[in-house]
């Protein structure tokens, strides 16, 4: 009994040491992974695209961008409609329902369009990218490409990265446009806000650089981060079915956290001094 | 260096993490012959092919192909050397977004500036050689396992390589496509004068086509010889492997505590 007791005490004394060791190892692993991911990004993105490269990129624009179009537009419509509905009930108390257009447009352009589009993009296109590249790895397509003498980073990864970088900002623009139209449907057509004031208030308050520009910068940052995470998770995974499913989940989780965290940082940098 | 050797592996050491996969592996592949490398699953046969192809780097030792140290070559020269090798992967590894025709044409498009008409002739010739000229418009997802491997073989020989590496060509094949593949590997070797390395654990098929066999186990060569000499080898471990006996020096049981004690303690994990 006392022997057992002593052993337990010994173990508990070692516990903190082991935790520190685990922390250290975790940190090293993370730095290692970040290093690999950074190198991976550089090796894939640098270099002059060939004609073949542009053809491959267009193909990926279709898979990555066009395939996410429907879900992004439908979500944009609903979000615009909900914004108008919620905004109206608040604004009407102050007799300020004429400012509805301004409220809908600013919320969408600055915040909701970039963030929600990016979250949807991570779920729809990001997870598909991870799974697709992971499956190519598991079926040795990437290795065999390398054996044939073609660098998979240039041929498989680069077109997908560029397609993600370009398509998410475009999707975000689509989201905003449809959202503003949804706000119009609910605000003007249904709740009876004066049409002229919906549009003119919006025109008067939305700044081209401050609002549209900043919103696009946000979505460009999200596009890079989400696509990078998705593609790297696919390229780096353990090539088994379990490995693929884990990596797909990681893509969605990491992307969502990165989007929301970066959104706060970017918002503080862009609009922090306004308030 | 001996000119009749195409591949020369000397003192190869390689580990994955903590796990030592090779510790001092030596083997030679003579030109124009079929050399088989056999061993149980997980011994590192696929890893060995990747080391030979220059995709993985050894911790020590070297691999020379036609006298050139694969792992010392600059990237450009390595890619030129790979043009002279074909590799047939375990899963076929056809590009899933390209048709059968485009898969076979892929290495030609990458490495040559041949006009389309010439590419077409070569592709059809290679597909004819594996009996799948009629399947050229299909996508890889529409092919059976045996057909996948035959298309992959056509792609691997598209550039007329000197050396072809086969990774488990017979795994998961029905008896007919197994026979077809055995025949094809032999034909490709004899008709085109190719040097072949066949990695496999299918003993009967492999022994039937190989000129020389290496059996690897525990990261080293356990035995080597012609199929005839290995068949009568008296070493227990070789016999167990070649004749497929379930228990022997390589135990059937994963290391475990005594069966009786284990049952009596009644714990699920110990
Ligand atoms: N990418 C990898 N990462 C880590 N371990 C691996 C990887 N590929 C293979 N291994 C391990 O290396 C060992 C040898 O694998 P492999 O060469 O595929 O064996 P074989 O082809 O003989 O069945 C196995 O134990 C396997 O788990
Ligand atoms: Mg293998």
UniProtKB/TrEMBL annotation, chain B:
Pfam families: ABC_tran. Residues 7-243 form the ABC transporter domain. PROSITE patterns: ABC_TRANSPORTER_1, ABC_TRANSPORTER_2. The keyword Calcium does not apply. Keywords: ATP-binding, Nucleotide-binding, Transport. One of its GO terms (molecular function) is ATP binding. It comes from the Bacteria. PANTHER family: INTERMEMBRANE PHOSPHOLIPID TRANSPORT SYSTEM ATP-BINDING PROTEIN MLAF, PROTEIN TRIGALACTOSYLDIACYLGLYCEROL 3, CHLOROPLASTIC. This is ATP-binding cassette domain-containing protein. It comes from Modicisalibacter tunisiensis. The lineage of its organism: Bacteria, Pseudomonadati, Pseudomonadota, Gammaproteobacteria, Oceanospirillales.
């Amino acid at each position: 009994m006392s022997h057992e007791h002593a052993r337990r005490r010994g173990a508990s004394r070692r516990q903190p040491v082991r935790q520190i060791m685990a922390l250290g190892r975790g940190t090293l692993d993370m730095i290692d992974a970040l290093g690999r991911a950074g190198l991976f990004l550089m090796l894939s993105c640098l270099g002059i695209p060939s004609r073949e490269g542009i053809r491959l990129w267009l193909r990926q624009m279709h898979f990555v961008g066009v395939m996410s179009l429907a879900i992004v537009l439908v979500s944009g419509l609903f979000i615009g409609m909900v914004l108008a509905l919620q905004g109206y009930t608040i604004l009407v108390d102050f007799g300020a329902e004429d400012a509805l257009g301004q409220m809908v447009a600013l919320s969408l352009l600055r915040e909701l369009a970039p963030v929600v589009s990016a979250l949807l993009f991570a779920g729809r296109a990001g997870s598909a990218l991870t799974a697709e590249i992971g499956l190519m790895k598991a079926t040795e397509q990437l290795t065999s490409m390398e054996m044939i003498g073609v660098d998979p980073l240039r041929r498989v990864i680069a077109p997908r990265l560029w397609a993600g970088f370009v398509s998410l900002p475009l999707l975000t623009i689509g989201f905003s446009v449809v959202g503003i139209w949804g706000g119009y449907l609910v605000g003007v057509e249904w709740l009876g806000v004066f049409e002229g004031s919906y549009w003119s208030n919006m025109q008067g308050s939305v700044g081209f650089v401050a609002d549209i520009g900043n919103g696009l910068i946000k979505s460009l940052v999200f596009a890079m981060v989400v696509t990078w995470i998705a593609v790297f998770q696919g390229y780096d995974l353990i090539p088994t079915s379990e490995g693929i499913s884990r990596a797909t989940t990681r893509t969605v989780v990491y992307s969502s956290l990165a989007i929301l965290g970066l959104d706060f940082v970017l918002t503080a940098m862009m609009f922090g001094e306004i308030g | 260096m001996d000119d009749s050797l195409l591949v020369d592996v000397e003192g190869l050491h390689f580990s994955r993490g903590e796990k030592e996969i090779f510790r001092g592996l030596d083997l030679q592949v003579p030109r124009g012959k079929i050399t088989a490398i056999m061993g149980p699953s997980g011994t590192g046969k696929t890893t060995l092919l990747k080391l030979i192809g220059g995709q993985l780097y050894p911790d020590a030792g070297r691999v020379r192909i036609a006298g050139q140290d694969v792992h010392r070559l600059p990237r450009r020269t390595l890619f030129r050397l790979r043009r002279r090798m074909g590799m047939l992967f375990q899963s076929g590894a056809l590009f899933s977004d390209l048709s059968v025709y485009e898969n076979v044409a892929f290495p030609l498009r990458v490495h040559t500036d041949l006009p389309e008409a010439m590419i077409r002739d070569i592709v059809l010739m290679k597909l004819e050689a594996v009996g799948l000229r009629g399947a050229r418009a299909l996508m890889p997802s529409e092919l059976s396992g045996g057909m996948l491997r035959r298309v992959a073989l056509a792609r691997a020989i598209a550039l007329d390589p000197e050396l072809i590496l086969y990774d488990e060509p017979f795994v998961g094949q029905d008896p007919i496509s197994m026979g077809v593949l055995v025949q094809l590997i032999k034909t490709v070797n004899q008709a085109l004068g190719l040097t072949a390395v066949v990695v496999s654990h299918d003993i009967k098929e492999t022994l039937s086509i190989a000129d020389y066999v290496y059996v690897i186990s525990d990261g080293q060569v356990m035995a080597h010889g012609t199929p005839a000499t290995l068949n009568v080898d008296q070493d227990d471990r070789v016999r167990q492997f070649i004749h497929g006996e379930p228990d022997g020096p390589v135990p059937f049981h994963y290391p475990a505590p005594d069966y009786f004690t284990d049952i009596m303690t009644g714990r699920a994990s110990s």
